[in-house]
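Meet the record:
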Amino acid sequence: MKEFELKYGCNPNQKPAKIYMQDGSELPIEILNGKPGYINFLDAFNSWQLVKEIKEALGMPAATSFKHVSPTSAAVGTPLSDKLKKACFVDDIEGLDESPLACAYARARGTDRMSSFGDWIALSDECDLTTAKIIEREVSDGVIAPGYSDEALELLKAKRKGSYNIVKIDPNYVPEEAEKKQVYGITFEQGRNNFKIDKDLLNEVVTANKNIPDSAKRDLIIALITLKYTQSNSVCFAVDGQAIGVGAGQQSRIHCTRLAGSKADNWHLRQCDKVLNLPFLDEVGRPERNNIIDLYITGEEDVTLDGEWQKYFKVQPEPFTDEEKKEYLSKITGVSLGSDAFFPFGDNIDRAARSGVSYIAEPGGSIRDGQVIETCDKYGMAMAFTGMRLFHH
């Protein structure tokens, strides 16, 4: 296939629209089901690069959940604890522990479920049946992977009344070194960002604490590769083999850190017993449970009050006080934090500390690097300067 006609571009009024190779060669994809749109393909090609690079860097199956050209999370296939399985709504999935790819997607989808609602999925490896079972029951626009087992493909083809978007990509495809795009009729050209992110990028540790264990290096690599395909400015929190909070597209770095930190806090709080044991009625579905859990944690509405909320619970749930949440989060440590550009002030580090950050990777190069390092030292954090900005626009 050399060309694929799209229904429209970003918006319904933007016609005609299509994807094709500028040199007239075959597209490196097969559309196995559905009819993906313009934004679907933007998500597909950005998300595929992300999981491909994580797999190459860490040698582990990887998955990501994308929305509007930024990842909500990315993860590798490390096993899930029983609490995390419940928090991610996958505790009923048989064979999960035997599928690292399914573990990766369960983590990626379960990180920020509100943002992942209607996501685009990318998988680094052939989609197996267990992974497809998770995808099949979630609200999602489509998936891209290098292949699909027969059973997985059959299951996914039946999703959304047979219209679910399934794309197969050639894993050996290598794009041209120069990339172009047009804005207002003007063509921009630049070299592709082929910068390699691996453990060697973390060698310049500039803080008094020089110890970054291998598990934290893994998490920092996941955070940095995630940032490489996140709309800038961006900051990413990661732990246990997954991105747990992505702050994307903010004009100021502190707003990135606050946004990502609040998402990371939410992810941690979802695993506390008080949240896991909310007495939902059996018939309450995952989307409703997820929304109520979010309200319960954030306190935006008091779901413990009598009235409309009672129809979701077997018994009245106990309130989740600010003091309880603060106490729970105060025990969190070992979180890694990546930034796509330097931190201009130490306030970002202060905010990161409140979300359990112990390890940081950022480019360095600010006139206030000394202040940022001093703030890290105050909390005993280890910070590496990567020397490489990761803006993505």
Q: What stands out?
A: The radius of gyration is 21 Å. The chain has a mean pLDDT of 96. The chain has three domains: 3-174, 197-269+329-385, 273-328.
